[in-house]
């Protein structure tokens, strides 16, 4: 299995002087290292936790931020997730990938938050509309402009935020955590086929958003 | 908007090389705020370096089972203690038993007995109004003297019991109420037996026995036995009930303990004093009509149980 890699993540790891373990070259050994690091932290090795944190903080933060679409909420949830992980260190056992363990905590925290604030989705939708107003309009709205990379990103971001929460959750999990569909099903508490179906719908919508910027003949 | 993609496109996406993945990775990166970084790391370090938290968690882990065990031990000890107390009550003397008479057979008798048993009051043996009677002759005077001696003994016993702490109210009240009912039933049987005997006596008017003076307020204290005392035991002699009541009281005065009385009867029979033994046995039966005596008890003699 290979973990998804972003320049940001690599930079985060480099901030504390560690080699990026979750990058494009990550292997099963790296994943196993996560569990070993957690076990070391359970035994009192704080530096092991720092390595773990550097590896996963960026992807976890983005997952929370893009799932909740609210920076304040994402900040709170981010601390909550790590707090729970710290609190559960003595009960930690290597039963699955550390990433699965970590993102299951994150998913549960996010769901709890949504339950606590039922209007979060509503408010997030309003935020999306506010963001959309700030973003430049689509190309066909302004025929005189040329589709730029910025415009493409803006449309993609808008399409991502417009995804149903379940589909967005699965999509961001797949992109950020590097988990397999089966593991995503485990994290989100649904069957693997359900997770796959949600991901398929999400990808189709995002592709459709990208299609507006591509020539008709280039669309696949 | 087309929300379906073919399998090939989706498989391409799953390989993470699709334009969708590239576009997602190209989104602006959202960094974790530095203050949150510091806070999380500080919390992680603090969690490792604070053994007090660890100890508290270990204590909390054992708090529930230890609490349950302590509760179980406490409950068990209370149950055992109450059981011992119940045994003490069963073996102990009855406070209300002698206080019952035929008039207490009313429905309120158990309640009264329970109330009276809650706070044992000193028995005023001489407070009972004695019925008026003629000048007693020498024999009745001697009997009365013996009765007084017996009263004094009983008074001492009651005083000794009154000093002892009373048992718990609820259990004692229930037990006393049950005993009061039993005593009332025994008294009722004794009354019927006396009436029957009175009917058989032709030289004495039936009305005399049937309308014997009601029991005075004085009630002898409990005897050291489970057998309830018949009501006639405390009935003072009267002129009208000259023979029966006096004999019975005399017998009672001599033999408060039925076992002792039976023992004396056995000794009489062993000594060949059959007539005396038969007389004593008859008196015994009148005094203790429902006292259980074995059929082969030598005290019964030839007369056998009635």
Helix and strand arrangement:
The complex is a heterodimer of chains A (220) and B (306).
Chain A: H1 7-15, H2 28-42, H3 46-68, H4 71-87, H5 98-116, H6 120-134, H7 149-161, H8 165-177, H9 181-188, H10 192-211
Helix pairs in contact in A: 1-3, 2-3, 3-4, 3-5, 3-8, 4-5, 5-9, 7-10, 8-10, 9-10
Chain B: H1 7-14, H2 19-25, H3 34-48, H4 51-91, H5 109-118, H6 138-163, H7 169-200, H8 206-210, H9 244-254, H10 258-270, H11 274-287
Helix pairs in contact in B: 5-7, 6-9, 9-11, 10-11
CATH topology descriptor of chain A: Rna Polymerase Sigma Factor, Chain: A
Q: Tell me the quaternary state.
A: heterodimer
**Average predicted local confidence, pLDDT of chain B:** 66
Structural class of chain A: mainly alpha
Tally of individual helices of chain B: 11
What proportion of the residues of chain A is helical, as a percent range? Answer: 55-70%
Strand elements of chain B, count: 0
Protein described:
The complex is a heterodimer of chains A (220) and B (306). By secondary structure, chain A is an all-alpha fold. Chain A has helices spanning 7-15, 28-42, 46-68, 71-87, 98-116, 120-134, 149-161, 165-177, 181-188, 192-211. Chain A has a single domain (7-218), classed as RNA polymerase sigma factor, region 2, helix turn helix motif (Rna Polymerase Sigma Factor, Chain: A, Orthogonal Bundle). Chain A is built from ten helices and no strands. The longest helix of chain A is centred in the first third of the chain and has 23 residues, at 46-68. Chain A is elongated, with a radius of gyration of 19 Å. The two termini of chain A are 27 Å apart. The relative contact order of chain A is 0.11. Chain B has eleven helices and no strands. In chain B, helix 6 (138-163) packs across helix 9. At the A-B interface, helix 1, helix 3, helix 4, helix 7 and helix 10 of A face helix 1, helix 2 and helix 3 of B.
């Amino acid at each position: 299995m290979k973990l998804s890699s972003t320049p940001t993540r690599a930079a985060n790891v480099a901030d504390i002087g560690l080699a990026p373990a979750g990058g494009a070259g990550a292997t099963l050994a790296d994943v196993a290292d996560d569990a070993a690091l957690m076990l070391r932290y359970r035994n009192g090795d704080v530096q092991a936790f720092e390595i773990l944190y550097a590896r996963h903080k960026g992807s976890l933060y983005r997952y929370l931020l893009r799932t909740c679409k609210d920076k304040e909420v994402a900040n709170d949830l981010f601390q909550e997730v790590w707090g729970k992980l710290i609190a559960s260190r003595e009960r930690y056992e290597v039963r699955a990938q550390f990433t699965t363990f970590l993102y299951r905590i994150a998913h549960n925290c996010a769901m709890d938050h949504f339950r606590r604030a039922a209007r979060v989705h509503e408010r997030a939708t309003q935020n999306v509309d506010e963001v959309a107003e700030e973003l430049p309009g689509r190309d066909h709205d302004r025929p005189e402009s040329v589709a730029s990379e910025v415009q493409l990103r803006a449309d993609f971001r808008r399409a991502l935020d417009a995804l149903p929460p379940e589909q967005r959750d699965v999509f961001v999990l797949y992109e950020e955590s590097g988990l397999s569909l089966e593991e995503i099903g485990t994290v989100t508490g649904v069957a693997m086929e359900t997770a796959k179906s949600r991901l398929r719908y999400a990808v189709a919508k995002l592709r459709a958003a990208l299609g507006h910027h591509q020539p008709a003949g280039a669309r696949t | 908007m087309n929300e379906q993609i073919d399998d090939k496109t989706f498989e391409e996406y799953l390989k993470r090389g699709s334009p969708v993945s590239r576009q997602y990775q190209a989104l602006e990166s959202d960094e974790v705020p530095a203050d949150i970084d510091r806070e999380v790391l500080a919390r992680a370090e603090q969690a490792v370096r604070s053994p007090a938290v660890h100890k508290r968690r270990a204590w909390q882990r054992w708090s529930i089972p230890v609490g349950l065990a302590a509760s179980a031990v406490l409950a068990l000890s209370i149950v055992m203690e109450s059981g011992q107390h119940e045994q003490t009550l069963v073996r102990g003397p009855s406070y209300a038993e002698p206080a019952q008479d035929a008039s207490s057979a009313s429905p309120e008798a158990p309640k009264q007995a329970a109330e009276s048993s809650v706070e044992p009051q000193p028995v005023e043996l001489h407070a009972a109004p004695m019925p008026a009677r003629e000048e007693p002759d020498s024999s009745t005077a001697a009997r009365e003297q013996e009765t007084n001696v017996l009263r004094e003994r009983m008074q001492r016993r009651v005083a000794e019991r009154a000093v002892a702490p009373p048992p718990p109210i609820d259990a004692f009240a229930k037990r006393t109420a049950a005993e009061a009912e039993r005593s009332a039933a025994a008294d009722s049987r004794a009354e019927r037996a006396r009436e029957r005997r009175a009917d058989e006596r032709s030289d004495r008017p039936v009305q005399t026995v049937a309308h014997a003076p009601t029991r005075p307020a004085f009630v002898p204290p409990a005897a050291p036995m489970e057998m309830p005392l018949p009501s006639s035991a405390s009935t003072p002699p009267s002129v009208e009930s000259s023979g029966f009541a006096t004999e019975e009281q005399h017998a009672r005065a001599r033999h408060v303990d039925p076992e002792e009385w039976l023992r004396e009867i056995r000794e009489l029979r062993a000594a060949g004093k059959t007539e005396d033994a038969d007389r004593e046995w008859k008196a015994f039966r009148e005094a203790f009509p429902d006292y259980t005596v074995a059929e082969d008890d030598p005290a019964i003699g030839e007369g056998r149980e009635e």
